Amino acid sequence: MTEKKKIVRVTGVTKDFDLGKIVVKVLKGIDLEIEEGKYISIMGPSGSGKSTLFNMIGGLDKPTSGKVFIDEVDIAQLDAYELAWLRCRKIGYIFQTFNLIPVMTALENITIPMTFAGVSNDAALRRGMELLDQVGLTGRHTHRPSELSGGQQQRVAVARALANSPAIILADEPTGNLDLTTGEDIIRLLKELSLQRGVTVISATHDYKMLNVSDQVVWIRDGQVDKIQERDELDIRTGGLESARH
Amino acid sequence: MRRLVALPLSKSFQMAYQSIRVRFFRSLVTTTSLVLAVAFLTFTQAGNDITEGLLISQDPAFLQILSKIGYDVSPDAPSINSSPKQRWIVFLSLLVCVVGIINAQLMSVTERFREIGTLKCLGALDRFIVRIFVIEATMQGLAGGVVGALLGTLVALTASIFRFGSAAVSVMPWTDLGATIFYAVCTGTGLSLLGVLYPAIIASRMLPVEAMRVEQ
User: Fold this and answer.
1) Which of A220, B59, B84, B142 holds its CA 20 to 30 A away from the CA of B68?
2) For chain A, which residues make up each domain, given as ranges?
3) Which residues of chain B neighbour A93 with C-beta distances below 8 Å?
4) Residues 67 to 86 of A: which have CB under 8 A from any B CB?
5) 3-state secondary structure (DSSP) of residue A172
6) Residue A15 to residues A5, A23, A29, B121, B213: CA-CA distances in angstroms?
7) A246 touches A207 (CB < 8 A)
8) CA A129, A135, A140, A141: dihedral to nearest 10 degrees?
């Protein structure tokens, strides 16, 4: 097998939260390499530090020590402008709570990142409509988030994340606020898009439905990488049983 | 090559306008306090302008009324200016107004923490956020300033017509009134900007993670 490009590299990352009297060590030295085009799930119980790790990879938070490389660039070295550029062009974010801008229509929500990236208005609108078609929301472009269901809002968020053709999509509990079938739809959509476009999808989750589509699962426990499983090592029985229980 | 993100001015205007339109009622409350303060400022100032106009006309009928209500109408009297007490009251009303605006804008920023965090995740720079808030405040300030100035002038005119009779209209110092309106609109806009500055800077400095953590 040829050596694939490492799109994300995390080396020795620790993160302490200073709560005044005590210092909480949330991450205790994480080393992780993520190959381009893979679908990765970061699994772990709540409080394990997976969201914190996730924020580090997304450049939303800075590690106490250690380095995070996106596309072989150390993000600690970037200034505010370059960081904004990275968030805008390289990374697409999907959140548990969708986080669409409530005052804007679906189409406008999708075009904001393109506006930031300097795409002309017409081109942005055209691409926005294409993306809406791709996520299965044809004809919903004038709807505000409040006029869409949870699943539809998350689809808009997926389209928004894809707007600037990022290399990485970071999805933080993308199915956390959705019911079972809607959640599965979103997972399937992410997987399809990952295959079609070769986008690396990294999702933090404790939803076992995610396991079925993941190429690699990173288990985080108590601020450390517990184990990394490839798809073929995954215990299918666990996936089946756990998803049935949900 | 420098990699830059951009937000064209037209787009900033559109976003600010949209935000005002959707939160119209809240904007209306903020703007109303501005309207009242500016109207009060214009009313006192325009009242002085009008009295001054009457005095300059040297019409005995007007002079009689003026001296009856307590003005010094002797030819060598100084021109009519706002008294220290008047200025103090106007100043206080403007101060109260600014505090009110800061309060309302802080609320509005808190309400939009998540939105601001999301924009930052999508690649917005700090100054895009400040710019959107400043444009919003300018729009509110202009609207509130214009309405307030017109309202204040209208009330001052009506009051003077009741007091001095309709003949007073012929000696109105229109240029002075125009200047008063202009300064009042500028003051209104300035106050609105003053009120939004601190909240906008707080909003823009927030790290995206903190903004996301806010429960809503």
Assistant:
1) B84
2) 37-48+79-245
3) 121-122
4) 80-82, 84-85
5) strand
6) 26, 10, 8, 20, 17
7) yes
8) -30
**What average pLDDT does chain B have?**
87
Q: What is the pLDDT of residues A174-208, one digit of tens each?
A: 888 888 888 898 999 999 988 998 899 999 887 88
Q: Does B78 touch chain A (CB under 8 A)?
A: no
Q: Read off the pLDDT of each residue in B88-108 and give the average, rounded to a whole number.
A: 91
Q: What is chain A's Cα-based Rg?
A: 18
CA-based nearest distance B192→chain A, Å: 22
Note the ipTM here: 0.85
Give the residue on B whose Cα is nearest the Cα of A162: B122
3-state secondary structure of A58: coil
Please tell me which residue of chain B has the smallest CA distance to A117.
B5
On whether the CB atoms of residues B126 and B13 are closer than 8 A, the answer is no
At B189 the pLDDT is: 95
Question: Topology of A37-48+79-245 in CATH?
Answer: Rossmann fold (3.40.50)
Q: Which chain B residues touch A100 with a CB distance below 8 Å?
A: 118
> With an 8 Å Cβ cutoff, is B124 touching chain A?
yes
Cα distances (Å, whole numbers) of residue A100 to A104, A157, B149: 8, 7, 39
What average pLDDT is seen over chain A?
A: 87
Contact B22 A103 (CB under 8 A): yes
A79, A105, A111, A116: best mutation site toward chain B, by most B Cβ within 10 Å?
A116
Q: Which tokens belong to B116?
A: 């601001």
Contact A60 B121 (CB under 8 A): yes
pLDDT for B10-19, tens place per residue? 889 999 998 8
Reduced to 3 states (helix: H, G, I; strand: E, B; else coil), residue A127 is: helix
Q: Single out the residue of B5, B215, B13, B7 nearest to residue B114, CA to CA.
A: B215
